[in-house]
Amino acid sequence: MSRFWRRERIRHFWREIGVAFDFDEYVLGSRDNLVLMTGVSNEGEDSFQTKLHVRVPRGVTFSKFLVTSNTADDVTPICSALTREDDEERTTRRCVQEAKESEKQEACFGAQGIKGNQVVCDVGNPLPSGKEIALQLVFQPNPEAIISARLTVLPFNVTATSTNEELHGTELDNHVMKELQVTVRSDIDIKGISWPDGAFDYNASRFGMGLLGEGERVTHDWQVGPEVTHVYDVTNQGPSDLPQAQIFLLWPTRTLGGDPLLYLLEEPDVSSEAVCHSVPDVNYLGLTVAEATYDHLITAPELAAQVGSSFLHVTEESAALHAKHRTRHGHRLRRSQRRRLEDELSCGPTNCTRVMCTVSPFRAKSNIIIRVRSRLWVDTIEKLGRSEVKITSRLVIAGMGMAEEDEAGPSWGDVEQLWAGTVTTLVRTGPEEHVRSLKWVVIVGSILAGLLLLALLSAILWALGFFKRKRPQDKSDSEPLNGNGFYSNGKS
After folding, report:
1. What is the 3-state secondary structure (H, E, C) of the chain?
2. Burial 77-96 (b: 16+ CB within 10 A, else e)
3. Least confident span in 180-194, 235-249, 325-339, 469-483
4. Is the per-residue pLDDT at 252 higher than 90?
5. CA distance 408 to 319
6. pLDDT in tens, 281-319
7. Which of 57, 132, 343, 444 has a Cα at 20 to 30 A from 461?
8. φ, ψ dihedrals at 399, nearest 5°
9. Computed from CA positions of residues 96, 97, 99, 105, in that sequence, does the dihedral angle turn out positive or negative?
10. What average pLDDT score do residues 323-348 get?
11. Residues 423-464: tens digit of each pLDDT
12. Is the pLDDT of residue 205 over 80?
């Protein structure tokens, strides 16, 4: 616990003000109460109309107060919140008028010019000599209001006033300020799937040159190759809302040699929470593309609920402004962070297309679905001449911190956290017919092996005499047959 004290001198008494919190930071998104511990100790003569004025930052609301210590039996502290401007104006006017009458305008330090909320505690009239009062002021934070106000710290200003005449030059000692650092803590979970799921094969004769012949140009997307779709599910598990998140999708559009690899059919389908810039590499050959369907990709009800792209068309002017924004705030990135971000945005062994989206803010417990639809360029895979090819896309999330507004408008702070995830498609270059024929060979071979085993078992059982019929031996069979009471000549 951090704690500090300021001592001030008044003509007829000593007064000591204490201010402390039960923790040193506020984790954005938390709704736990903020407890401010403060109090006044009178080491001199009686102090009349002693008050504590607590100026409260935006996004924080006074909830209640507790008296933790009171050595003045006849004094009952009372704290109340002033949240309306008219109440503050009336308090200021009354304080200024009283100060003019007493020729001591400095007494209004705690009430004059306050624009935010404030809490006023009457701690004694009088506060007897040698007595002290300790209070706990409980505040309720509002994470949404703190994000809206772009606060990086929560300042609490505590001022003690009284009607006792104060020594000249000691007025500024009546004020104590305590700041709570606003900390962003978020855990981003990135999940991804590829469709087709797992390794898959294709028949080269159905696509590209195998279908159209050498030198012919493809005109429809189905002529390029089998469809490949990657789906990302990004969830902010909290506890904090990210004030701003930059989403970078790295898509393997071409090989390093410039040959098409995963041909983008349309702009990625992103849930409405994110706003993305348009992608120049989408269907750059102008192919006729069939309508997309994601029924086979639905793995949870929430995936089906997030439908509809929210891409912005970036004009040359807006693109220039965006580049200017990056240039202006690029110096704010620490060297290590910049290097790590550059490493995460590396395309690896492909010539990738970068898609950038912005989420502001990225709420805790919310998720974003990103679907990317493409066609595998079979002619390029055949050109590589490999039996197996792995093609990977990458998603990078950069969590931005908050910064105060300046003359140029609101700005964002450094990249504070980075998360990344990948989805891989495994392609085998054997034809589908060969695979099917192998399956039939296995099936027919299994049937023949079963018949052979049955014949072998039958032969063994026959050799053991299992199939031979044995009649029982009976003495009556050796005796001559009677005629059932009749002779052979027909006489009885």
Report:
1. CCEEEEEEEECCEEEEEEEEECCCEEECCCCCCEEEEEEEEECCCCECCEEEEEEECCCEEEEEEEEEEECCCCCCCEEEEECCHHHHHHHHHHHHHHHHHCCCHHHHCCCCCCCCEEEEEEEECCECCCCEEEEEEEEEECHHHHHHCCCCEEEEEEEEECCCCCCCCCHHHHEEEEEEEEECCEEEEEEEEEECCCCEECCHHHCHHHHHCCCCCCCEHHHCCCEEEEEEEEEEEEECCECEEEEEEEEEEEECCCCECEEECCCCEECCCCEEECCCCCCCCCCECCCCCCHHHCCCHHHHHCCCCCEECCCHHHHHHHHHHHHHHHCCCCHHHHHHHHHHCCCCCEEEEEEEEEECCECCCCEEEEEEEEEECHHHHHHHCCCEEEEEEEEEEEEEEECCCECCECCEEEEEEEEEEEEEEEEECCCHHHHHHHHHHHHHHHHHHHHHHHHHHHHHHHHCCCCCCCCCCCHHHHCCCCCCCCCCCCCC
2. bebebbeeeeebeebeeebe
3. 325-339
4. yes
5. 18
6. 999 999 999 887 655 554 444 443 443 334 443 333 333
7. 444
8. -85, 120
9. positive
10. 61
11. 999 998 765 545 555 667 788 889 999 999 999 988 888 888
12. yes
Q: What is the dihedral of CA 405, 411, 413, 417, to 10 degrees?
A: 130
pLDDT value at 8 more than 80: no
pLDDT at 190 over 80: yes
Angular region, 50: left φ>0, alpha ψ -120 to 50, beta rest? beta
Residue with tokens 């300020």: 177
CA atoms within 13 A on the CB side of 340: 15
First to last CA, the chain: 132
- The answer to whether the bond into 361 is cis (omega within 30° of 0) is yes
**Residue pair 353/253 in contact by the 8 Å Cβ criterion:** yes
Of 418, 419, 420, 416, residue with least CA distance to 183: 416
Predicted local confidence at residue 337, as pLDDT: 64
CA dihedral for 435, 438, 443, 446, sign (positive or negative): negative
Domains of the chain: 3-183 (2.60.40.1510), 189-432 (2.60.40.1530)
Distances from the Cα of 95 to the Cαs of 44, 156, 160, 406, in angstroms?
24, 21, 14, 33
The model's confidence at residue 176, banded by pLDDT at 50, 70 and 90, is confident
Tokens of 105: 């305008």
For the cut 90, the answer to whether the pLDDT of residue 151 exceeds it is no
Q: Which of the given ranges, 7-21, 80-94, 99-113, 320-334, has the highest pLDDT on average?
A: 80-94
Q: Token digits for 76? A: 């009952």
